[in-house]
Amino acid sequence: MISDRIKMILSGLPTHVVLIGLCLIWLVPTFGLLVTSLRPFQDINQSGWWTALAPPRGAEEYSQTCASCHGSNGKEIATADLTDPELIGQYSRSIKLLAMLKREIDGQPHLQGAPAPEPQQAADIADYLKRISGIAARPRFTLSNYIDALMGYRGTANYAADCATGEQALDLNCNVSDVMNPRGMGRAFVNSLLVTIPCVILPLLFASFAGYAFSWLDFPGRMLLFALLVGLQIVPLQMTLIPISRVYAQLGMNGTFIGIWLFHTGFGLPYAIYLMRNFIGSLPREIFESAYLDGMSHWTVFYKLALPLSVPALASLAIFQFLWIWNDLLVALVFLGGQKPVLTYQISNMVSSLGAGWHLLTAAAFVSMALPMIVFFALQRFFVRGMLAGAVKG
Amino acid sequence: MASVKYEHVTKRWGNVVGINDLSIDIEDKEFIVYVGPSGCGKSTALRLLAGLESITEGKIYIGDRAVNDVKPKDRDIAMVFQSYALYPHMSVYENMAFGLRQRKTSKSEIDRRVRDAADILGIEQLLARKPGQLSGGQRQRVAIGRAIVREPNVFLMDEPLSNLDAKLRVQARAEISKLHQRLETTFIYVTHDQVEAMTMGTRIMVLKDGVKQQIDTPQNLYEYPTNLFVAGFIGSPAMNFVDAKLVERDGKMVADCMDFILDVPEDKAKVYRQHLGEEVILGIRPEDTHDVEYCPPGINKALVEVKVDVTELLGREVVVYLTSEHIHLVGIFDSRTKARMGNTVSVAFNMDSMHIFDKQTEMAIR
Question: How far apart are the first and last CA of chain A?
Fold first, then answer.
């Protein structure tokens, strides 16, 4: 019995190892991105995300060199309280601190014979003292990257600090209306939604109509038309950018949502129709015949039978179309550009103008990842469950 | 309640002929079974009546109305499919009520009919379930229930039992027969299983390659098959066929079958008189092929010696495969028989039940 169990566990082991490995490959970078996006940008520049919970920089050097006299909290010597910002302010630079450490106090060497720290260590200690004295105090984790990204803040400090001192840029009002700042990710998120939702619903709707018609309506030229549509999948999208852009320019549709809706719908349809026809066509013929005998019209059969039964196909199609449009940069850049910036456009701008400031980039990336992840986890059960169970003899 | 009439109906898809010049009269309240091997057009004949296929030539009447151009839903028929074709996302109740809702039947009436049908079929406790939660037999009942609630003039059933296991099939067969008596409606039933056909039908139509072979009661079909195909198709194991020549010997008619010579009974000989000297096919059923020791009394026996090839004991009887030089036969012997593989046994044919078929036309000679 026990050997059987062990055998079972061992035989499942390779599968489990591979699965766990795959999960880690996906999960570790994502988690790292999340942690990074929540750290203050000074920390991000100093150390990796895996040190987020480690003691701050200089803490170790401090405990080696200073803690024996000043105590672990720095307050042991009342005349030299290391948490006093005024005192520390004098030694905020490592050279000054190093000089202070080498000086004699009351005729005794400052370090009482202990070796003097290296310059790098001194710098770390200075950094640590600034942190505990409150001169440069900062929490381990902060939401300011997200706020900066959402509000479209472009500066050297952060949004909250600039607003507190009244030094904010001209396009910021320091109130809720900043969420809709055209330079921010908040506005871009809304724009992305406005682009994506119709671009998913429209092709799905048309494709399910067409899929039903191609599989259950008898009309001349049906196969020819379907073959033509399948063939259209090959047309590269880039080929049509210029002609369509010209047409849109003449119609005044460049930079409008309608323009990009039509474009994405058009390019999503061939594949969507192909998939829907194959799925609806593979539903059991007898169900449809039974429905016609029951007195259903084509319209009723479509929305009472074909649609509910093709939910798995619709769901997977919706996920793919959603991901493709949500992550699309090319089409959004050509037809919306800076007039109605979407998430991908804003992120690409951040990369170019703030090459070093990737604290904003991490937060922005997470904002744009959030929705695809929600959509995927909400719809993934449709990949697993077969809706047809029980329709015919199984 | 309605009669059904096929009038010179032909169905073609391009060059392929599905049904060739089919004419049948089906009376009200009959239980007609279309039977034949697969691909013989029996399902097509049913689908033409249901309106799921268009008629190429000819006319189909339901009652007095020609229905060629009537939509399926207006033909006042209900159909049970082989795969049941239940709507998988609806409960059993909704499955049964759905057709009525489409016809704007009142809610209370729908409820009454669904519960009546469920009561008849014994599926009241399943009404809230989805088809996926039912067994094959239960799904099949639901499919029948869906047809019953429509209260149609004609029930069409396309091999409704072929997805059930053997035991359930026997039970369902009896239930459908009972249902027919209870509903007093015309039933048209398609099957490839001749046992189903024989047990259920008031009349049976045998089809082959889209052509009607014979339509008659089960008894007549069994006793007076009109041609070689029907004779071979109805009955299990199938009828034995032997090439023979009708000749006269000592003033009596005999059938010369090369390996043996069989006496033809006098009443039959009278009928066959004009075919004397012709090459024919002699047919004798396995159940008319007895071990001479356990042969029922009072029959016109013809005795031959043959070798036993294989025996299959079924309990009540033994199926025996017999061979002689040119001839292979199947017999059903009493289970006490001493016939064993490799033995030679004396076989008695019941010549009262012999059949003769013309060698060219394959039509029965009577």
Answer: 35
Residues 137-166 (B) with a CB less than 8 A from some CB of A: 139, 146, 150, 163
Residues 6+ apart with CB under 8 A from A157: none
Write out residues 287-346 of A within 8 Å (CB-CB) of B: 287, 289-296, 300, 305, 308-309
Residue A284 has its nearest CB partner, among B83, B130, B134, at B83
Please identify which residue in the block is written with the tokens 């379930």: B129
Give pLDDT < 50 ranges for chain B: none
The residue type found at B130 is K
Q: A296 CA to chain B: closest CA distance, Å?
A: 6
Cα B301 → chain centroid: 30
3-state class of B244 per DSSP? Answer: strand
Confidence of residue A203 (pLDDT cuts 50, 70, 90): very high
pLDDT at A388: 46
Same domain for B258 and B195: no
Chain A residue with Cα closest to B74: A295
What does the pLDDT look like over B176-222, one tens digit per residue?
Answer: 999 999 989 999 999 998 889 999 999 999 999 999 999 999 999 99
User: Do both A250 and A300 map to the same domain?
Assistant: yes
Domain, as residue range, for A98: 59-133
For testing the chain B interface, which of A293, A296, A297 should be mutated: the one with the most B CBs within 10 Å?
A293
Confidence at A353, pLDDT banded by 50, 70, 90:
low
Name residues whose C-beta falls within 8 Å of residue A385's C-beta, 6 or more positions apart in sequence: A312
Domain shared by B119 and B216, yes or no: yes
Residues A189 and A275 in one domain: yes
Q: How many domains does chain B have?
A: 2
Domain annotation covers residue A250: yes
A-chain residue closest to B78, CA distance: A293
pLDDT per residue as tens digits for the range A185-194: 889 999 999 9
Q: How many CB atoms lie within 10 A of CB A320?
A: 15
> What domain range is B160 assigned to?
4-233
- pTM here is 0.78
Q: Distance between CA atoms of A130 and A137, rounded to whole angstroms? A: 7
pLDDT in tens, B76-92: 899 999 888 899 889 99
Nearest by CB to residue B85, choosing from A296, A389, A392, is: A392
Report chain B residues whose CB lies below 8 A from the CB of A392: 83-86
Amino acid at B280: V
Residues of chain B contacting A286 with CB distance shorter than 8 Å? 81-85
| Candidates A293, A388, A391; nearest CB to B73 | A293
**CATH code where residue A106 lies:** 1.10.760
Same-domain status, B83 and B227: yes
**Closest Cα of chain A to B11: distance in Å?**
18
**The total number of structural domains that make up chain A:** 3
ipTM confidence: 0.83
